[in-house]
Amino acid sequence: MNFRILLTFFLLPVSWTLHAQDYRGQVVGSNGSPVGSASVIMLDDNRRTLTFARSGRDGRYTVVTPKDKTGKWLVFVCMGYERDTISLDNFVQGQKTMLTEKSFKIKEVKVVAPKMRQMGDTIDYYVGMFKQKQDRTLEDVLKKMPGISVGSDGSISVGGKRINKFYIEGMDLLGNKYSQATENINAGKVKKVQVLNNHEPIKMLRGRSFSDQAALNIVLADDAKEVWQGTVEAGTGSSLQKPGHWLGDARLTAMRFAHKLQSISIYKFNNTGKDILHEINVNQILGISAPDEVGFLHNINLTLPDLQPQRTTFNTSSLLASNWLFKTGKDSEIRLQLSGALDRSRQQQTTTTVYNDVDGGATIAEDVTAHSHESSLSGELHYQLNAARTYLVNNLSGYADWNRSTGQSILNGDVVRENVKPHKRYITDDFSWIHRITDKRSLSLSGYVAYNDLPGHLLLHDGSWESLDLQTLRWKATTWIGQRIGAVNVTYDLETNGNRQWLSTRNPLDTANDRYAESWLTGRVTTSYKNDWLDLSARLPLSWLWRSLGREDKTNVLFTPEVSAKLTFGVDWDLSLSYNYGWQPLSLRDMTGTTLFTNYISVTQGLGYLDNSHGNSFTGILNYRNISSGFFATAMTSWAGNSGNILYRATYDHGFYTTRPTDRRSVSHFLMSMLQLSESVHWCRLNVSLQGHYTEERYNLLLSDVVTPFTLKSSSATLSFSLQPATWLSFDANSNVGASRQINRVDRSLDSPTLVSFVHRLNVYLMPGKWQVEWSHELYHGNNDATSTNYFMDLSVAYRRKTYELSVAMNNVLGTDTYKQHYYTINQQIHQLNILRPREILFTASFDI
User: Hey, what's the torsion of the CAs at 826, 829, 835, 840, to 10 degrees?
Assistant: First the structure.
């Protein structure tokens, strides 16, 4: 392989002297008459298609050799004539190629439309070939498409990596909140889904920069374009166990997808356990947006078991979102997004936590009833010019919330009140400009500025209060110039970025004002090379870093290289490899010497001085796709080794679990492997997928002042399929098995037992005529008495017409009301008893407008 790369570079000067060559001629029949509409295809040495042309009415054609390519053969194909192939070594400009007439006896055949088609880096999925009768939304169909994965949070991945853009008719209406489209666009309104592999969103950088991420483009049916459309849906019902309470579920949508205007507006309300707020959450990180600031305090969020969310969520949620995109020119657009959310949730849980890192062990028993209130407003104004020679984007966004939680806990037998108010507000603006000076040189300027304010108040279990106020100012500015040297793209950039953080703390143990400053100056050289089978990129940054905490300041000079490569083997296989060395300053949370309470029973303290961590990481992803058979496979492995991890000494005193840093450091290793196989066949619209995950984390804990190595191993396998043997009958099913074990590498007698859990789900759909009966089953069980066996059954009946639907649904028919589980974290063994939603019934009417 190294020889091929070296040979390519030696031949570059020769290739620069070559110009695209035209091959002109005429196609005639055996009687000498011109043959029109004949396909003339140019192939290379490996008989791969380079380009093609079609003969005119006079039989004449012109085939142009692609730049930097060499043709070997011309193939002539036309219906009613025998195929003919000639060598370009013997080609004479203007020559006539005679095709011999041939008759074909057509056998009786059954024409089956293709499910997928590939052209270059684009794969078309025809929605009608994947959609089953019960599917309502675009997301329902995406889950059946091989090679595409939809996460529980609505995020979409292709080939093991999250997509970098989500387009509707080639327009980016939703940015990083595309769940509003996938979960609300009617599947019947979509013609096909296009996967754009190796997608570079910036036009002027296409073919010049390395990208191994894909984008999705949604191609709508003709009747879904240039018209206003929407849905009105309302449901009402009641719980059928214990004290009955009213249930409601409502949805209003309005959409328009026109040539110069796109819009999606949504209002949703429900108290049936559905998670609707994730639709306005970020599904991916795009561009140069400022990093999201994470505060020290959070609403009371109890850890939920691995059940369907609607089993455990007691909520009253409202969501309002409106998205508008206006085309202001051929290559320019303005996007406006506004959203607001209200959520009140009730949680009830009994937990026993055993802390492995406390000398002699420590056990905390909690019986918690908590009420969380979340309310937020956010907005974004986005302008973009994405032309062939200029790219300009500016994104202004803001957010504010008024979250709070209250509750009561029986903590080791004592009744304790809980109260926390973790607020967050920010405003940020990011900007990017790139201009192509010549065909081989480009100039860029980009950056962002972001201000965050995160005030919070926390009630401790002893009745005292803590007040925290974290303010941050972050900025970044980058300028670069790029040029093309032969087949190699080179960019030289200079970047400055930094942040200022102010933390004010007042609690029973400490009152302090911390100040942290960080400034970077980075020079970077990035090279990328691309040919038919290889994409290679290397980033070589040299950075100067200055940091200050209190009266201490420190300077570092850093070299943090990144290398990535993608090898393409024909149209079916590709292999992506990446390596990087990372060096990161510790967060203010890890470095502040101030004592902080992070919840009503947890106390932490940082080092009190500047420090950092560093490490290496490697990722490899192998993809295989066979469009004709509908088979896709992805294998991924990643490894990360981090040094400089702080070892904390943990204690449990006066009802507080406290962690304080020591001067000891450790190394940790994290290994993750994943295999995903999926196939879609015409027989009974069968879609099958198999996923396997394995993770292994090696780390150290400080036990009795002795560094003790541990390993936490987790593995899981999931088999899923959907099948429609008849138009009136369909099945969706999946089974998952998961296992975890914590190993003490010093004293194996202290190893925890292996926990194994199973989850099986089966949905049966009976769909005679306009009726649809859905019968759902879920079974949870494990190998440990601490994990309960639970069976759930749901039943719904719907009458569906083209423009409306009436339905009645009963959830948790058997009325199962509790679920218990046992699981491990790095330093804990946790037993939980969760309260579940009771048996419920809901009547719903939905109308398309």
Answer: 50
Which DSSP letter does residue 783 get?
A: S
According to DSSP, the β-strands at 465-485 and 441-459 are: antiparallel
Neighbours of 9 (CB within 10 A): 12
Four-point Cα dihedral 568, 634, 162, 699, nearest 10 = -110
What pLDDT does residue 9 have? Answer: 36
Strands 573-585 vs 314-327: parallel, antiparallel or unpaired: unpaired
The amino acid occupying position 847 is F
The strand order across the sheet containing 148-150 reads: 148-150, 156-158, 161-162
CA 575 to the chain's CA centroid:
20
Confidence at residue 472, expressed as pLDDT on a 0 to 100 scale: 96
Q: Are 421 and 403 in contact (CB under 8 A)?
A: yes
**Residues pairing with 573 in the sheet:** 569, 624
Dihedrals phi, psi of 222, to nearest 5 degrees: -60, -35
Residue 7 has pLDDT above 60, yes or no: no
State the Cα–Cα distance between residues 518 and 500, nearest whole angstrom.
Answer: 7
- Provide the 8-state DSSP code for 278: G
- The SS3 of residue 98 is strand
CB atoms within 10 A of CB 176: 20
Encode 207-233 in three state secondary structure.
CCCCCCCCEEEEEECHHHCCCEEEEEE
The single-letter DSSP state of residue 110 is -
Burial class (CB in 10 A: 0-12, 13-18, 19+), 468: buried
Query: Do strands 215-220 and 165-168 pair parallel, antiparallel, or not at all (unpaired)?
Result: parallel
Taking the C-alpha atoms of residue 606 and residue 616, their distance in angstroms, rounded to an integer, is 24
DSSP string across 558-584: EE--EEEEEEEETTTEEEEEEEEEEEE
Instruction: Please name which of 665, 630, 782 lies closest in space to residue 716, comparing C-alpha atoms.
Output: 782
Backbone angles phi, psi at 676, to 5 degrees: -135, 125
Side-chain-facing half-sphere of 794: CA atoms under 13 Å = 21
Q: How far apart are CA 309 and CA 117, in angstroms?
A: 36
Query: In residues, how long is the chain?
Result: 849
User: Which residues make beta-bridge pairs with 148?
Assistant: 158
- Nearest Cα neighbor of 447 from 500, 393, 502, 518 is 393
Name which of 123, 147, 121, 125 is nearest 138 in CA terms. 125
What tokens appear for 847 in the block?
A: 């109308």
Q: How far apart are CA 60 and CA 24, in angstroms?
A: 7
- Do strands 488-507 and 246-257 pair parallel, antiparallel, or not at all (unpaired)? unpaired
Residue 579 in contact with residue 615, Cβ under 8 Å? no
CA–CA gap between residue 755 and residue 62 (Å, rounded)? 68
Tokens of 247: 């249930």
Half-sphere exposure of 731 (CA within 13 A, CB side): 12
What pLDDT digit, counting tens, does each position of 91-110 carry?
888 888 888 887 655 555 45
Phi, psi of 666 (to 5 degrees): -145, 170
Mean pLDDT of 534-563: 95
* 3-class SS of residue 65: coil
CB 165, CB 386: distance < 8 Å: no
Interatomic CA distance for residues 203 and 209, integer angstroms: 11
- 834: its two tokens: 């969760």
Rounded distance, CA 351 to CA 495, Å?
48
Name the 3-class secondary structure at 279. Answer: helix
CA-CA distances (angstroms) from residue 60 to 28, 49, 66, 76, 670? 9, 20, 20, 12, 63
Q: Report pTM.
A: 0.82
- From CA 449, how far away is CA 394, in angstroms rounded? 12
Q: What are phi and psi of 218, to 5 degrees?
A: -95, 120
pLDDT in tens, 230-267: 999 999 999 998 777 899 999 999 999 999 999 999 99
Distance, CA of 699 to CA of 759 (rounded, Å): 29
